TrEMBL record:
Names of the cofactor(s): Mg(2+)
One function term, GO molecular function aspect: terpene synthase activity
Gene3D superfamilies, A to Z: Farnesyl Diphosphate Synthase (1.10.600.10)
EC assignment: 4.2.3.-
Enzyme class: lyase
Top-level taxon of the source organism: Bacteria
Swiss-Prot/TrEMBL keywords: Lyase, Magnesium, Metal-binding
Organism this protein belongs to: Cystobacter ferrugineus
Similarity comment: family membership: Belongs to the terpene synthase family.
Name assigned to this protein: Terpene synthase
Length: 333
């Protein structure tokens, strides 16, 4: 019997917009940089996995109107997140060594805050320094401060907490996990790039801090992060025994079978999507017609929709043993 279909996920209606045509160019540029920095160490298996992931396609979907230079930076940051995530979630020597991971995180954050590279800087630190330098030339200081703050939350309040659960073999309660996942997904940082990808779209603080905008940000983050847990369940839980996954948390906390946990997860995600749409309607009714704000909300919707479109096409999650029929069919020869 086939498992539940990912088509049960509801997506918000968005303005028609084709993915950026720079996908292939972004892919080549990022690939060249990560190989030059030895982030993949030229190992054939790692390079094949990187190529199969098609990260440029994700960036093309979620920032469809960005300029090429800025999109390459967005793509590089996405790759930074995925490579770091793979190290922390899959490598015991990283994810289950709290002191080592804390020092690793501290070193990367020091670079994001404008510090110099250490003499013994890791490839990821050098990649961080390159990103910080290039972003700083294009973004305003207030935007950079917001971005770095969200990176800090991602690493300290998200990643380190998730790593502690993996190290100690503990499973958080449902509410705590949803809060943790919003942070350790890195989606807040990616939402900031909605303002960065296209020149002139940075939100002034008075718009960014509106309660309705903050609510939309949180709901988008939850939808994208928990949806990613569906696609990555097999890799994270079944292959690497990592407890930080929404389906696993539901199974443990509510005593559910796999099918019931998946359906419950989809119901929670769909409820957040419905709440996002309701908030969007309130925003339009409020007559806050600043085009930057309206463009920002479209960018959040592009993330919700683009994340699903890319996850169904990338080779990152396809597997002949996936619980989802769409991912099994994709893995078929």
């Amino acid at each position: 019997m086939e498992g539940p279909s990912l088509s049960l996920l509801r997506l918000p209606a968005a303005l028609p917009c084709e993915p950026s045509l720079y996908a292939a160019a972004m892919e080549r540029g990022t690939r060249r940089r990560v190989l030059a920095l030895e982030l993949l160490r030229h190992e054939p298996a790692q390079v094949r996995r990187f190529d199969a992931s098609q990260f440029g396609l994700l960036t093309a979907h979620v920032y469809p109107r960005g300029t090429r230079e800025r999109l390459e930076l967005c793509n590089d940051w996405h790759v930074w997140l995925f490579l770091f995530d793979d190290e922390v979630d899959e490598l015991v020597e990283v994810g289950q060594r709290p002191a080592y991971l804390k020092a690793y995180v501290d070193a990367c954050l020091a670079v994001w805050r404008g510090g110099a590279l250490r003499a013994e800087a890791t490839p990821l630190e050098r990649f961080t320094w390159d990103l910080r330098r290039r972003m700083g030339r294009l973004a305003s200081e207030p935007w950079m401060e917001r971005f770095v703050h969200d990176v800090e939350d991602y690493l300290y309040r998200g990643t380190l907490l998730a790593a502690r659960h993996w190290t100690e073999g503990t499973v958080p309660d449902l509410e705590s996990y949803i809060e943790q996942r919003a942070l350790d997904s890195g989606v807040f940082t990616a939402e900031n790039l909605v303002e960065f990808a296209e020149p002139g779209q940075e939100l002034p603080e008075e718009l960014f801090r509106l309660p309705l905008v903050q609510r939309l940000r949180l709901l988008c983050t939850r939808v994208v992060a928990l949806t990613n847990d569906l696609f990555s369940f097999e890799k994270e839980v079944l292959w690497h025994r990592n407890p930080n996954n929404f389906i696993h948390v539901l199974r443990v906390n509510q005593g559910l079978g796999l099918r019931e946990a998946i359906l419950t997860a989809i119901d929670v995600i769909n409820a957040d999507t419905d709440a996002f749409v309701a908030c969007e309607e309130l925003l339009h009714a409020s007559r806050l017609a600043d085009p930057r704000l309206l463009g920002y909300v479209e960018g959040l919707k592009a993330w919700i929709c683009g994340n699903v479109h890319w996850s169904l096409r990338t080779g990152r999650y396809s597997s002949p043993t996936s619980p989802f029929p769409e991912l099994r069919r994709q893995a078929s020869p």
